[in-house]
What does this fold into?
Amino acid sequence: MKIPKEAKKVFDGVIFDVYQWEQEMFDGSKATFERIHRAPSVECIAIVDNKIITLEQAQPNRDWYPSLPGGRIDEGEEPAQAIARELLEETGYTAESFELYREYSGTSKIHFPEYIFIARNCKKITEQDIDSGEKINVKLSTFDEFLNIFRNELCATSIYLKFEIYEALLDEKKIANLKKEIFQK
It folds into this structure.
């Protein structure tokens, strides 16, 4: 669901903007509706040989947590450009190719474009270039280790990707299909 054209921005934040609009109800009365727009982001499942790059991150207001490489899309940047930049900055790796794996748009109350890529044939070409508010440890994880980071309640990743992984963890066929899709085997 997109934000209606008649909506007015009532809060302009760094990551979140809030929009409000009047909407007619079924009985003819009117009510104020609200929707949040979050800056779009990217994440990737980055493949190095038969391993997947996973991260352990810390930020000034947050203890260590698992995640995948990714971050916000900069103004004027395309999602594929953003994930190539984020992967390089956070890990020092580049990829031979980036394939859009999933695209999500948020919930009924939060518009949040998220783009999940698979980064294939990654190679380390430089050292990390992380933000001053980040500490990031890079790990090459097996497929099973990759699946298990999503079990950690602190895992910072797309909620929809988490749902997909949770479903796979409950169904051997879904795990096999996910593995095949990620590794193209």
User: Anything to note?
Assistant: Residues 40-183 form a domain with the Nucleoside Triphosphate Pyrophosphohydrolase fold (CATH 3.90.79.10). The radius of gyration is 19 Å.
